């Protein structure tokens, strides 16, 4: 597919938008043409009932870092970004980078999640338009979990509960336990905000990965359809870090959901595909699936490069399986 030149329009507001998603200066970026057919994507054709089936453990890549996870009827939606733009929200409109590929499901098709899991406050992960849509559609029904010192961004929305987790903390909700895990990234949403990456641990905006674990009682209730407790790591956004080695004492992590894009030129805060595979191996995960690529023009590495490098890296590792590699694909976890 031949690329086209697309210039991201600037201004004082836009400069702040781009900084918050990792682009500190205005750039003319090379991105592919918007896909005119679905031939290169396997968009979801499964019924929404399948996502909420109590007997299922599955996940579907909606786009960017948005994954729809079902653990025996507990529905988790990670970093929801469901609309065309990411960036600053002004008077009901979002100004910033535009999607290259549409979401695998339209917002209206997304099942009501029990939990919205937010890794950090960057605008391509904590998208106000998407969170407003979800809470307006289901006021008072969704539990939100987010990183330390980030809940103030979304506390005006009508959640069932809104809780922060710091590294090493965990909580139980529905049929799962969720624990916050350290990663190597940065936290500020707008320039000048306190940031944990700058050593401001007490006041700085933080950033998490999350270990999602099926609760023992949920496992016992569903043991007819499975013979083990399921564990999923949502990697959020991170550069390579050895922190995941601290998880290798766990007997099984079924799936590592790992970011693989925007590493060029921002390698200090974003891992490349080979490093994502290394981290999956560090935690002894059985399967890896990608996020943070093929959706927004956030890096210079090219649209298809992260996926191609991931496929090659996984094929070179006999102990790791690639669960899926395309937006819209569904992985059923055994």
List keywords for this structure.
single chain, 334 residues, alpha/beta, Metallo-beta-lactamase, Chain A, seven-stranded mixed β-sheet, globular, disordered N terminus
Overview of the structural elements:
The protein has 334 residues and is α/β, with parallel strands linked by helices. The chain has a single domain, classed as Ribonuclease Z/Hydroxyacylglutathione hydrolase-like (Metallo-beta-lactamase, Chain A, 4-Layer Sandwich), CATH 3.60.15. It is built from six helices and 18 strands. The chain has a seven-stranded mixed sheet with strand order 10-9-8-5-4-3-18, with no helix packed on it. A hairpin with a 2-residue loop joins β4 (66-71) and β5 (74-78). α5 (273-282) crosses α6. The radius of gyration is 18 Å and the shape is globular. The chain starts with a strand and ends with a strand. Mean pLDDT is 84; it is low at 1-47 and 219-226.
């Amino acid at each position: 597919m031949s690329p086209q030149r697309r210039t991201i329009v600037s201004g004082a507001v836009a400069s702040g938008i781009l900084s918050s998603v990792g682009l500190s200066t205005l750039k003319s970026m090379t991105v592919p043409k918007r896909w005119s057919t679905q031939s290169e994507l396997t968009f979801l054709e499964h019924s929404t009932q399948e996502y909420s089936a109590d007997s299922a453990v599955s996940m579907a890549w909606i786009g960017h870092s948005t994954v729809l996870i079902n653990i025996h009827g507990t529905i988790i939606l990670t970093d929801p970004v469901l609309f065309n733009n990411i960036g600053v929200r002004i008077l009901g409109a979002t100004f910033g980078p535009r999607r290259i590929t549409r979401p695998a499901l339209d917002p209206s098709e997304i099942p009501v999640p029990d939990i919205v899991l937010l890794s950090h406050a960057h605008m391509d992960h904590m998208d106000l338009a998407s969170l407003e849509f979800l809470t307006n559609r289901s006021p008072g029904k969704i539990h939100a979990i987010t990183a330390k010192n980030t809940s103030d961004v979304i506390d005006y929305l009508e959640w069932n509960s809104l809780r922060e987790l710091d590294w090493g903390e965990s909580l139980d909700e529905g049929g799962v336990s969720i624990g916050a895990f350290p990663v190597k990234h940065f936290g500020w949403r707008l320039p000048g905000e306190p940031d944990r990456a700058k050593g401001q641990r007490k006041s700085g905006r933080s950033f998490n990965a999350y270990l999602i674990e099926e609760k023992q009682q949920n496992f016992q209730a569903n043991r007819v359809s499975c013979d083990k407790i399921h564990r999923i790591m949502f990697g959020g956004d991170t550069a390579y870090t050895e922190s995941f080695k601290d998880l290798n004492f766990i007997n099984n992590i079924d799936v590592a959901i790992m970011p693989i894009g925007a590493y060029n030129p921002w390698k200090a805060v974003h891992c490349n595909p080979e490093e994502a595979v290394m981290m999956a191996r560090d935690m002894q995960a059985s399967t890896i699936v990608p996020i943070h690529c093929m959706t927004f023009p956030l890096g210079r590495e090219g649209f298809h490069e992260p996926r191609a490098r991931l496929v090659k890296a996984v094929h070179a590792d006999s102990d790791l399986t690639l669960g899926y590699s395309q937006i819209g694909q569904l992985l059923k976890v055994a």
